[in-house]
Amino acid sequence: MKIFLDTANLKEIEEAVSWGVIDGITTNPTLASKETGNFWEIANKILKLVNGPVSLEVTALDVNGMVEEGKKLAALGDNVVVKIPMTIEGLKAVRRLKEMGIRTNVTLVFNSNQALLAAKAGADYVSPFIGRLDDVGEHGMDVIRDIKRIFQNYSIKTEILAASIRHPIHVKEAATIGADVATMPFSVLKMLVHHPKTEEGLAKFLEDWKKVKI
Ligand code: E4P
């Protein structure tokens, strides 16, 4: 499973990329609003820092506006993926952008029928929001499972990008089901590294090493 970082924060991206585990980045308007710099400058820096797809989201609601914004975003670099909301206008935009050779990630997906439509329109990625489904008492992971099954049934190539990931169990379950990508905040990525037994074991090894004659 590919690991994307869900952030527009340059420090977090730089640090996580240095670990050698980051395959791409997803951003959204809320994440962009947390940063103080100019969006276009930040986007340009992210695109240079990351050797992989970077999702940048449109804010227009009509197909023409989405396509215009999508073209402007895609012009920033070869690794841009244009993030489009799951609406009827969004589906039309996905199709139009595909015809121009521009990759898309359909966001705000909350069920498998939406994912199927996004795939049929030509999306490269679909982003089901697991955490937000859990928030309203639904099992977000069930949607990942259903989409996986449907895409396998019809050999659909669109990648399943598990989004709105809140904790390590989401990551483990998404990987077990076979999601193509999981995008997560830096806080969750850091949680994946640690295990108390690793830290305890390392401390003991270092203590015992002091007794070795060298
Ligand atoms: C996905 O691409 C979104 O940016 C993101 O995962 C949303 O997560 P949230 O529900 O934590 O805001």
Short recap of the structure:
The protein is α/β, with parallel strands linked by helices and 214 residues long. The chain has a single domain, classed as Aldolase class I (TIM Barrel, Alpha-Beta Barrel), CATH 3.20.20.70. It has helices at 10-18, 29-33, 39-49, 63-74, 88-99, 112-121, 130-135, 140-153, 168-177, 186-193, 196-209; strands spanning 2-6, 24-26, 54-57, 80-85, 104-109, 125-128, 159-162, 181-184.
CATH-level-4 superfamily name: Aldolase class I
The structural domain count equals 1
The appropriate CATH architecture is Alpha-Beta Barrel
| Low-confidence blocks of residues | none
Query: Would you tell me the structural class of the helices and strands?
Result: alpha/beta
- Please, what is the average pLDDT? 98
Order of helices and strands: EHEHHEHEHEHEHHEHEHH
DSSP strand content: 15-25%
Largest sheet: 8 strands, parallel, barrel
Bound molecules: erythose-4-phosphate
Walk me through what this model shows.
With 214 residues, the protein is of the alpha/beta class. The protein has a single domain (2-209), classed as TIM Barrel (Alpha-Beta Barrel). Helices cover 52% and strands 17% of the residues. The chain is built from eleven helices and eight strands. The protein has helices spanning 10-18, 29-33, 39-49, 63-74, 88-99, 112-121, 130-135, 140-153, 168-177, 186-193, 196-209, and strands spanning 2-6, 24-26, 54-57, 80-85, 104-109, 125-128, 159-162, 181-184. The protein has an eight-stranded parallel barrel, surrounded by seven helices. α9 links the parallel β7 and β8 (181-184). The longest helix is centred in the C-terminal third of the chain and has 14 residues, at 140-153.
